[in-house]
Amino acid sequence: MALLDVKNLHAAYGTTRVLHGIDFSLEEGSITALLGANGAGKTTTLRALCGMVDTQGEVSFAGSRIDGKATEDVVRLGIAHVPDGRGTFVNLSTEENLRLGAYVRKDRKGVEEDFERIYGYFPRLKERRHQQAGTLSGGEQQMLAVSRALMLRPRLLLLDEPSFGLAPLIVREIFEIMRTINRKEKTSILLVEQNAAMALDLASRAYVVETGRVVLSGSAEEIKQDEAVRRSYLGY
Amino acid sequence: MDALLQQVFAGLATGGIYASVALALVMIYQATHHLNFAQGEMAMFSTYLAWSMINAGFGYWAAFFLTVSLSFVLGVVIERVIIRPVENAPVLSVVVVFIGLLVILNSVTGWIYTYTIKTFPSPFPTAPLFGNKFVSSHQIGAIGITLVVLLLLFSFFRFTPLGLAMRAAAQNPVSAKLVGIRVGWMLALGWGLAAAIGSIAGMMVAPIVFLDPNMMGGILLYAFAAALVGGVDSPGGAVFGGFLVGVLENVLGAFVIGNELKLAVALVLIIGVLVVKPSGFFGKVNVSRV
Predict the structure, then answer these.
(1) Domain hosting residue A43, numbered range
(2) Residues of A near B (CB-CB distance < 8 A)?
């Protein structure tokens, strides 16, 4: 059974409808990518999963329905969201940002261990742990956003455009770490990306979203071979 | 010289009270970006509760702590019942709600307790400490209690997970929800804390100005000045501003402009700060790289 199952998901901002019945699913332990152009509804899909917009339709996580749940309760089920724009607490220190990521966890010892684990992945954050997070560079803030989400020890990690506005080298570093985390810690990842080539290298499965609907789905290999995808998103 | 010192100490004592009220204002401002005009009346109402308890035979400190706890609960209830529904309303609607709350609390208190001025006991000895001639024991006690409250609050926000969560919720509610913080409850908690701090200020000032439903009017104005001078989003600044306003008001009132114009000091400060340095002395200028 799929870890995440989305059926006929609709969403709207006020009267503007953005999602018109999205269907997709994500296997436990996999990396699944949602691809699509600007405004296709990828970010809204992630927001809908977390109860951040008004939705209709079914969302099941680990067998139980989560649509209509408050964001705070979705988080408690083990879904961590790295929002677009990174959502840094700019006036708090790096360490406080990370501590907040583990806010709902009760195992204090595990949390302390996770600090070290995450500083192991991102040594730069350890150097800057007492620094005000708003003064970190864009790349460091993205690392911080991912790390804050990992502090939850999530079952499912939602990543919204982790490559946005970053230098290619840093993007590669972050993607490598995502791959490691997926393999080593069996964290399932739902990745939203405009950088289709990188996303398809990382993901095992992909869905192409256009104007609020899934227009194509398949394994990452199949999607890469698809003529239309190649022309529209991969650019060759 | 003696007269000046006396005025300075008296200023520090009332300044401590302005600081507490300013701190309560800043707490709510940080979380919601609204200035709670009813803060003073909430404190006044709490002080009447304490007065009732003391009259019913409770010891001073029992009444004190009971009042602080009860005020906390009342603050939470006010947020949940009255403020919550206008959370996303335009700022003017919220201001009107605050003013409505002010008038309601003021009249209800007058209705229950009448407008007759009452005395309120001080927990501190009447004889000045060490026989000094500058400052009464109550003044020293009030300053001490302000500092203790400040230290407790600072520790709470700096060192406890709940304090961190409240700061996070005030700063970035969307991200706070994404890490699982119940932002609505954090706001309610902020109101509770503000009401509790206000009640302490009320109980400390009542022995000086006597208890009546209008006792906090002037004090709230000084507290606004204090909060603005310190920077309306800076708790430490609010406390600094409180002491500064207290001393200025007393010294200027005694030696320069006379007691009749004391309240004008607060207004001049408010206008002066807003014109010259709107962020106040310690107001945060956010640094962020994009």
Answers:
(1) 1-78+157-162+188-236
(2) 50, 52, 70-72, 75-76, 80-81, 83, 87-92, 96, 99-101, 103-104, 132, 134-138, 148, 152
